[in-house]
């Protein structure tokens, strides 16, 4: 069905970590070549990442990522680019207010200070334009330490339990807590999940909006956009799986 649509009638939106790259790794040349040389001629292409633009650019091979892809939505779409130009930017600080944010940040730091993990490093709270990234192990950990924490987290549900405590502690702040990537939790105002990107894409007249992501289960940061009635959601397990599903979808 999709193969009969023109490029301007179908858009494929991609999560980054676990979908086009391995977690926090740089995109492999065969994956990039496939997306840009085989998918892009047949469909409009966009990225919807939880990270800020700097991190997305690092993973996607450089700052020209905003020109390679038709859309780049950083921080869940709260920082939005189309055809290389900035088209939207939201501020969690303005939306929530400094006083409430500090109460939240102080609580999160206090909670993490009581955790005992295989390792702890630095940068436990990262403040971005559209969200706060909370990381129990610390974002300055090495890749090996990330993998170690991810395995530990899977067994001991560190992030899952943390999210439940945050929900109990802050029922009235209007914040949502979403597990993303291997090591962290994204915190943002309700409605500021990845469906925010659809505010832009929805205006552009596509007949089909496809989304590919690996964290599509409830609580994962791809869940809302995957479930959204405006999208056709695809759960993937790796960049290779993404390529395989695209070949079937677009009959490549």
UniProtKB/TrEMBL annotation:
Organism: Simocephalus serrulatus
Assembly, per entry: Homodimer.
Family note: Belongs to the eukaryotic PMM family.
Any one Gene Ontology cellular component term annotated for this protein: cytosol
EC number: 5.4.2.8
Name by which UniProt lists this protein: Phosphomannomutase
Gene name tied to this protein: EOG090X0BFR
Cited Pfam families: PMM (PF03332)
Active site positions, chain numbering: 15 (nucleophile), 17 (proton donor/acceptor)
């Amino acid at each position: 069905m999709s193969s009969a649509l023109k490029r301007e009638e179908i858009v494929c939106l991609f999560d980054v970590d676990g979908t086009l790259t391995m977690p926090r790794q740089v995109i492999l040349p065969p994956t990039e070549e496939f997306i840009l040389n085989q998918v892009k001629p047949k469909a409009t292409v966009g990225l919807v990442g939880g990270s800020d633009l700097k991190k997305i650019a690092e993973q996607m091979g450089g700052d020209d990522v905003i020109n390679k892809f038709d859309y780049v939505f950083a921080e869940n779409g709260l920082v939005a680019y189309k055809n290389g130009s900035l088209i939207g930017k939201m501020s969690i600080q303005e939306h929530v207010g400094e006083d409430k944010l500090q109460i939240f940040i102080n609580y999160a730091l206090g909670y993490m200070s009581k955790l005992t993990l295989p390792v702890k490093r630095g940068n436990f709270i990262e403040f971005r334009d559209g969200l706060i990234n909370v990381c129990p192990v610390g974002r300055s950990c090495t890749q090996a330490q990330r993998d170690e924490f991810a395995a530990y987290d899977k067994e001991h549900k560190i992030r899952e339990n943390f999210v439940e405590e945050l929900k109990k502690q802050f029922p009235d702040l209007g914040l949502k807590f979403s597990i993303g990537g291997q090591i962290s939790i994204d915190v943002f105002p309700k409605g500021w999940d990845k469906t925010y990107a659809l505010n832009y894409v929805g205006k552009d007249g596509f007949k089909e909006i496809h989304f590919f992501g690996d964290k599509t289960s409830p609580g994962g940061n791809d869940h809302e956009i995957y479930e959204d009635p405006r999208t056709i959601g695809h759960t993937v397990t790796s960049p290779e799986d993404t390529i395989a599903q695209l070949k079937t979808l677009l009959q490549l």
